[in-house]
Amino acid sequence: MLACVVFAPRSHAATEAGVAYYDSVEIGLVTCTPHDEIYSLYGHAALRLHDLHTGEDISFNYGVFNYSQRFFVLRFVFGKTDYELGISPFQDFCKYYERWGSGVTEQVLNLSSTEKRDIIKALAVNYMPANRVYRYNFFYDNCATRPRDIIEQNINGQIRYANHTGKAPSFREMIHDHTAQHPWAAMGNDLLLGLKADCQATLREQHFLPENLAKDFDAALIIGSNGVSRPLVLEKRQIVPPGVQLIKKDFPLTPTACGIILLVLSLAIALKEWKSRRTMVWWDGLLMSLTGIAGCLIVIMFFSEHPTTSTNLQVLLLNPLHLFFLPAVLRRRPTRYWKLLLILVVLFLLGGFLQDYAEGMILLASCLLSRYVSHLVIETKRCQNNNNKKK
User: Fold this and answer.
1) N or C: which end of the chain has fewer CB within 10 A?
2) How far is CA 211 from CA 207, 233, 335, in A?
3) Any residues with CB less than 8 A from the CB of 243 and at least 6 apart, and which?
4) How confident is the model at residue 215, as a pLDDT?
5) Partners of 30 in the beta sheet?
6) What are the residues whose beta carbons fall under 8 Å from the beta carbon of 362, sequence distance 6 or more?
7) Do residue 352 and residue 218 come from a single domain?
8) Ordered alpha helix ranges (H), 277-334
């Protein structure tokens, strides 16, 4: 009967079943712990509908996507990724995460029969072909916020979450908690995320992470329209215990280590230049090409649908201007590039008080600053030699 209600929302199945039918139905929030795939570093959430009378057991998963879709990664970066609501047997859902070594926990919700009926009807409407696909947003509209919203919108009253103590974390800080073992993934995130990612997240905004939503559900109350309160969670169960996970090794050097190597090379080249009194423009060309190409991506992200990428102070260091001045530098022509570079680097360093930069960015700024100093020293020596010859 449960499947009939879900898959035939336009029929009279729910009406025929009657409200009393839903007494035997459990609705639970399911939370899955992270595993090592890049798309699962932050965990996952879904809804479970379990009919204790018939044994029907279904998962509603708002995190279904097609990774083989053309330009998937590019679409994800620009905030144009479409996810959809998927339905599958709950046993199959659990087996998938069990294979990855992820734990699966269910919080059975303390709902009346009427509330269960309304939630199931809303899920059925969501699953209609015209509604099941939605524009995914990592922070504001994802696999965790969708189940929360559908629960909140279909209970008799409202959910009151317990207040958090201490300073509220920023979006970036919460992401760092989940990418600690993946420094290059963390760097990639930090390169694309702008100033808004360092703002403190409200209690509801923190629910983009499934584990945060689960914690708040544990302490939440449903305040009925009559003023009577009851716990939101009736029972908590561990469906699948965490297992052994195979951790893929990242690139052996961290972004910081690569930044140090780059800076040491730049300083060594600068010392050699000071002795020979001639700049190595090939090194300038390499640095300018890398920062210019990366800058093109940062600028393009200003037009992304992700709201946290629109103001990114790292554009002061990574920007297309490096490519614009590249021909003049390679041909050793007089250029204002080096004075402009100094201004941009100083502004970038000052911006570090407002935005948390990607790992290694300060080292890259130091590397570019060393190029300015090297050109300044050599140009000063050249002018001194010219003056001495005139005398």
Assistant:
1) C
2) 8, 15, 53
3) 98, 101, 102, 103
4) 97
5) 46, 106
6) 259, 349, 352
7) no
8) 281-301, 321-330
Q: Domain residues for 48?
A: 2-164+203-240
> What global pTM score does this model have?
0.88
Look-up of token digits 């989940």: 178
Per-residue pLDDT reduced to its tens digit, 195-244: 999 999 999 999 999 999 999 999 999 999 888 999 999 999 999 999 87
Cα–Cα distance for residue pair 382/371, rounded to 1 Å: 16
Does any domain span residue 372? yes
Q: Which amino acid is at 171?
A: F
- What is the residue-wise DSSP string for 326-375? HHHHHTT---SHHHHHHHHHHHHHHHTTTS-PPTTHHHHHHHHHHHHHHH
Instruction: Please list, in sequence order, all residues whose beta carbon lies within 8 angstroms of the beta carbon of residue 302, skipping any fewer than 6 positions away.
Output: 309, 310, 312, 315
Half-sphere exposure of 326 (CA within 13 A, CB side): 17
Q: Residue 3: pLDDT above 60?
A: no
Any domain includes 184: no
